[in-house]
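Quick sanity check, Na+/H+ antiporter subunit A:
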Amino acid sequence: MIFAVLIPLLIACFIPYLSKIKHKIHTGYFVFIIPLVIFIYFVRFIGNDFTPVRQTVNWIPSLGINFDFYLDGLSLLFVLLISGIGALVVLYSIFYLSNQERLGHFYVYLLMFMTAMLGVVLSDNIFVLYTFWELTSISSFLLIGYWHFKERSRYGALKSMMITIFGGLSMFGGFILLSVITGTTSIQQMIAQSDMILTSDYLPLILILILLGAFTKSAQFPFHIWLPDAMEAPTPVSAYLHSATMVKAGLFLVARFSPVFSGYELFFIIVSLIGIITLCWGSYMAVRQTDLKAILAFSTVSQLGMIMAMLGFGTEAAVFAAVFHILNHATFKGSLFMVAGIIDHETGTRDIRKLGGLLTFMPMTATLALFGTFSMAGVPLPFLNGFYSKELFFDATLGLDAATILSQAIPYLAVFGSIFTFVYSMYFFFGVFTGPKQFNLLPKKPHEAPMGMLISPIVLVLGVVVIGLFPNLANAPFLLHAAQAVNSGVEFHEVSFWHGFKPPLIMSLIVVGLGTVLVMTRKKWASVYTVLPGRLSFNKAYDKLIEKIDSYSAGVTNYYMNGSLKTYMTLILGTTLIVTFIFMLLTNGFALSTDNSADFSVLEISVVIIMIIAAIATIFMNHNVAAILVLGVVGFGVAILFVTYRAPDIALTQLVIETISVALFLLCFYHLPKLKKSTDSAKTKIANATIAIGFGALMTAIGISAHSSNWFDSISEYFIETSYTLGGGDNIVNVILVDMRGLDTLFEIAVLGIAALAIIGLIKYKKNKGAE
C-alpha cells in the first residue's frame, strides 16, 4: 500500500521533464495512467469476504511514528473515489487545459494532492495522518491559486489554507491529547481503548479540537466560506477537490473516530446540529448565486452538511445512508462540476443570467446535467441514485430518539434544506438549458463540447444511473464493509425504490411539491435575501478578522524590529531567561550535587578570581583595544584551568581559538566607532544589568544542574573502555573527535569552510564595489 500512496508523488518528480514535450503529447496522458493503476490495484479488494489489511514501514519508531497503513471498508471507499475520480478528472483536464497552460505545475500539484489524500484515508498513525492532512491543505492552496495572475485566485487559495490549516492545528492538539491518554499513536488501538478516552477529563476538549479539523476541511458552518472562493480554481480542480476528495476528508475523520465518540452525547449534539445547519444554510444560499460554480459550491456545502449530520446521528440506518450518499454525491456532483466547466469552456461565461436556451446547442451536455441535477435534487425516479440516499436520510431523521428538542426538530430541518436543494437543482438546469436565448451576451457562440471532454462526465452519469437501477449491486461487497467500519452494528438490508407509502416518501413528495412552487415563483420571493442574510456576511467577518490580525502583527513587528541590535539582544536574552527559568522551576530542573567533583587548589581559585575581575572590567573600559585585551584574559584563563585539570588537548584548542578571536576582534573593532560612555537612562541600565546577571546566573545554574543530574548512564566509561579497541588510540579526546564522532567533526569543518568562503566572497564584493 505504501507504494500506491507514494507513487503519485514519485511520478510528480518527473512531470517537469515530461511537460517539455507537451506540444507533441499532452502531459495529462502520462498522469492519467497513475490514478488508473491505483484504482485497478484497490478495486480487487471489493468482495463479500473482504478483511482489513495492514502494512507497517518504520519511520521514527522511537516516537511511535511509523507509516502504518490500514485498509478497511471505509478507507477502501475513499481510496476508490480518490483514484477513480482522479483518473476521470485527469482525462477531463487533457481537453480542458490547453498546451499553453503551465501543465507541469498543474500536474505536480495534482499528484501531490493525490498522495496526500491517499495518505490521509489509509494512515492508522495519527501523526502520519496529520502530516498528510496538512499536505492536502498545501497542495490544494497551490491548485486553487494555479491561475495566480488572478487576484481572486490568490485570495481564494489563501483563504482556504488559512481556515483549513487552523483546523488542522486544532486537530493536531486533539491527537496529542489522545496519544497521551491512550499511550498509542494507532487509531485502531485508540478505538480499542475508547472506554479510557470516554472517561478522560479532557474528552470535551479532545472532541472539539478534532471536530474543528473536520469542520474546517469539510466546509461546515460557519467555516464554509472558503469553499465558494475556492471555485476560482480550474474546473478539474473543483471537480476533484471540492466534490469527491478534499472536502470529504473531514467526513472521513468524523467517520473514522465515530467508534470512539459515538457513545458521547456531546458528539451527537455538535455534529448533528452543525451538519443540519450547514445543510439548510448551504441550500438556502445556493439559490442566491448567479455563477454556476458558486451554485455548485454552496450545493456541495449543503450536501456535506447532510452527510455530516447523518454521521452525527450515529445509528445503523444513518451510517449506512451517509456512506451511500458519499458515493452518490461523488458521482452526480463530479459530473455537474464538469458540466459547469464545459459550459464555461464553450460559451465563455458561467453567469447564469447570461445563459439560457442551450439545450438545442449542447444536447449531450444538457442530458448529463439533467441526470446530475435531478439526482442531486432527490427526484423520485428509479434510475437516479440521489433519491435512494435522500430517502435513507429522511428515514434516519425519523429514527432518532425524540426525547430531545434537537431530535424532534431535525426531520423538519431536513425537509427545509431538501426543499432548497430541489430549488437550486432546478434553477441550475432550467436556468441554463431552457428559457430565452441570450447569445448576444455570450463571449463565444455556444456549441457542443468535444467528445474527449464529455467522456468523464458520461462515466460519472452512468454511475448515477447504474447505482439507481441496481442500488444493491455494491451493497454487500462494498458499502456494507464501509458502514461497518464506522458502526459495527450495521447489517445488510435491501435498498429499494418502492417501500410503501411511508413517512420518508411523504417527506420526498413534500420536497418536490413545495420545491416546484418555489421554483415557479422564485422571482417573487427572491427579495428575502435582502433580509436574510442581508448585510450580514461571514466573508466580511473573515476579511475584517484578517485585516485586524495583519494590522496588529505589523504593529508588534515594527515595535521590536527597529534596526537596533541592542533591542534584539535584550529581547532574545530576556525571553530565554524568563522561559527557561520558569520551565526549570516548574519541572524541578535545578539540582546541586558535589559528588564526583574535582579538588581545587589556590591556583584554580586565583585564576577564577582574575577571570571574574577581567570580565567585570570590560564593562568600564572606554577604549576598544583595552576592552578586547581584557576580555582575552577570560579566555586564556579558561585555557589555564584546562591545563590544571590535565586536559592539554582542550587547552591547546582553547588557546588557538582565543588567539584567533582576539585577533579578529581587533581587526573588526579597528573599523568600528570608538567606544563611548553610556548615555542610557538609569531604568535601561538596571534592565540591562538584570538581564546580564540573570542570564549568567541561569547558565551557571544550568551547568551545575546538568552536572548534578543523572538522568542517563554516563557514556564516559564506554569511551574509556573502547577508545583503544575501536579507535586504535590512547588519546580518548582525539579518538572521540576523529573516529567515534567523525561525522560531527567533518560537518563542523564543512560549516567553517562554508563560512570562510562566504567571508572571502563578501570581502571581494566590497573591493569590487569600491573599484566601481
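Posting the structure with no commentary besides this: The two ends are 62 Å apart (CA to CA).
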